[in-house]
Amino acid sequence: MAQDWYRENHTPHAQIALSVRQRLFDQTSEFQRVEVVETDEYGKMLLLDGCVMCTERDEFIYHEMIIHPALCSHPNPRDVLIIGGGDGGSVREAIRHRGVKSVTLVEIDALVIEASRRFLPSIACGLDDPRVDIRVADGFVHLDDHQGAYDVIVVDSTDPVGPGEVLFTEDFFKKVKRAARPGGIVVFQSENPMYYSEVITKMHRTLRGLFSHTGLYLAPIPTYPGGLWSFTMASDEVNPLTGKIFEGRMDPAPLKYYNPKLHRGAFLLPNYVKALVTP
Predict the structure, then answer these.
(1) Do β-strands 79-84 and 33-39 pair in parallel, antiparallel, or remain unpaired?
(2) Quick one: which of 57, 244, 82, 64 has its CA closest to 176?
(3) 3-state secondary structure (DSSP) of residue 147
(4) Tens-place pLDDT, residues 178-231
(5) CATH number for the domain running over 59-277
(6) 84: left (phi over 0), alpha (psi -120 to 50) or beta
(7) Which residues contact 154 (CB under 8 A, 6 or more apart)?
(8) CA neighbor of 84 nearest in space, from 119, 46, 122, 56
(9) Whole-angstrom Cα distance, residue 131 to residue 110?
(10) Where in the chain are the domains?
(11) Which of 46, 49, 63, 217 suits a disulfide with 53, CB 3.0-4.6 Å?
């Protein structure tokens, strides 16, 4: 019997290929195709429109790094907003912080939440926490209705295509800023620096015009394009490069990736990446 393979084109000339043990879920919502497959190398994997969103084996890197640098940089993160992230991984990490009183998850596609609850319980396990408010809604509209409401805002978006394209626009960045409280921190996933260099440069040029401080940081994620991913933190009061790291505020369950020394090191960029965000 022929081996079943999942293949994702990262560019017209580069792709990732993983052998698939079984295909568990495949439905199309009004927004996108949602699939869950079980791979031999990375366990269960969530796909949106054929692109990897997370896998059981390496998701902890992405979710720990999109959440903990921001929440450990804020002196008192009480109310957190996560836009996108319907798989629940970012929520799981946010509720590790004992001082967090509420986490609002705004996911436009209910099918993503449904598939993740059913097939990825180790990732979606935080969605039932009493502090979590799940809203199937448009992030744009939610931001307009909740100005000045959040200490930390995390944009856990898909790539800048399809329904995720609007999450990389100046209009959206302005809405995010208005929804943050004074002293708030916002963080965005900001793509791979090798394949999406223009996206990163444009994003930072725009964010520098809106926030006093911005910082790009990196983490290796094997199943994402290029195997390296970037995140962008922005704030009017907290400098991501020099601000204090508040330790000891998380539940004692051990993390697999993040630690305070790595937090500092993640903002130390190789020269080719530094050039993308240098004014």
Answers:
(1) unpaired
(2) 82
(3) coil
(4) 999 999 999 999 999 999 999 999 999 999 999 999 999 999 999 999 999 999
(5) 3.40.50.150
(6) left
(7) 66, 67, 70, 80, 81, 82, 83, 85, 90, 94, 186, 187
(8) 46
(9) 19
(10) 5-55, 59-277
(11) 46
Residue 121: partners with Cβ closer than 8 Å, 6 or more residues away: none
Tokens standing for 5?
A: 């393979």
HSE, CB side, 13 Å, CA atoms: give it for residue 222: 11
Catalytic sites, residue numbers: 156
Range 5-55 has CATH code 1.10.3720.10: no
Query: What does the pLDDT look like over 144-177, one tens digit per residue?
Result: 999 999 999 999 987 666 656 676 788 999 999 9
Q: Which tokens sit at 21?
A: 């043990």
Nearest to residue 248, comparing CAs of 99, 120, 140, 124?
Answer: 99
